[in-house]
Amino acid sequence: MNKHLLLISSILFLFIYGSAQAQPGITWTAQTTPATTQTWRGIVYGNGVFVAVAASGTGNRVMTSPDGVTWTSRTTPVDNGWNDVTYANGLFVAVAGSGTDNRVMTSSDGIT
User: For a disulfide at 42, which of 6, 68, 84, 100, Cβ 3.0-4.6 Å?
Assistant: First the structure.
């Protein structure tokens, strides 16, 4: 009997108050970037900057942003398939790992 009462109460609550709605600030907004054809694989925030890495592209497989809205394309030392990036102890570290692309690149500022 109590299970039925709980179920009926739940249904009435949804009927009276409507379905769940997204809270303000939860809706995603699409942003444009200077590098639109890359396959973006990883992103991290550290030292006041977002850094994203891509597995494709020519010379511009890193983008940076101070706010997640405005992005700047950066030049990488080699066109490897960068899979992920992390930040710790004042250093960004990106890893590539496909075929002969097994490399690591580092940056203290995320830009160079």
Answer: 84
